[in-house]
Amino acid sequence: MPTNAVAxxxxxxxxxxxxxxxxxxxxxxxxxxxxxxxHMGALxxxxxxxxxxxIILNSILWAIKLHVHGVQLFGFGDDEExxxxxxxxxxxxxxxxxxFGSEADLKRAWAVWNVWVPISGSKxxxxxxxxxxxxGVLRDGQGGEFDISDPQLVTLxxxxxxxxxxxxxxxxxxxxxxxxxxxxxxxxSLKKQLRVAIGRVARMxxxxxxxxxxxxxxxxxxxxxxxxxxxxxxxxxxxxxEKEWRRMFNKKARRDVTTPAxxxxxxxxx
Length: 270
Hints:
Blueprint lengths: L2 E11 L8 E3 L2 E2 L2 E2 L3 E3 L10 H19 L3 E2 L13 E2 L1 E4 L2 E6 L2 H18 L1 E3 L8 E7 L5 E3 L21 E4 L2 E4 L5 H19 L6 H19 L7 H18 L18
Antiparallel strand pairs: 1-9, 1-10, 1-11, 2-5, 3-4, 6-7, 8-9, 11-12, 13-14
Helix pairs in contact: 1-2, 3-4, 3-5
């Protein structure tokens, strides 16, 4: 029975020496606190922080590539050199997702991580089901799908890596994904964010119609523009969100609910 397993890890690289510590301050209601030295992790927000993480990850990515196999892409067989086109790793900054065709390959990759962590002075982030997790799906010849069994991955300090069901979503690079490929969790997350945007427009103080459309476009295009570039959302789903916005707009602008949609379009003044 074929297995598709995904291991999603959050890394927290940490410096070895006191000279590499970062000077930090707390931002409080009465101003900045006294400075203190932080020896854990890299300073987030630095222009080069993603590149620093990529350099740290490079060694482990090559080790996994040489040690285990990835998941074969549908429709691709052996090329002229006898190699199968496959996805082995998806990584950016300190975020890594490895894909495997069997539990054995997954455990080989985990063994590499367990060796690499103490050597590099890093730590794997495990916080419930929010960071490092394992998920996967079993498929039979009749199209049936099943959850994978817990591979019982354990860190060097004895912490168990959580295992998700095939329908549970995990956040990879800010996008909710599930092993079975469903987009329900991602769609529900975006709907909540867009409803927050609608609520903000509804709380505007005596706005003009042009103001409401301008703010709505800014909030919606910022959210949906990014999200729709990573996950497919059906047109019908988007229409339902638009209807919620239109109900708010009509009420706020004191327009009749039967007003045609085209009348809400704002045109710039000549």
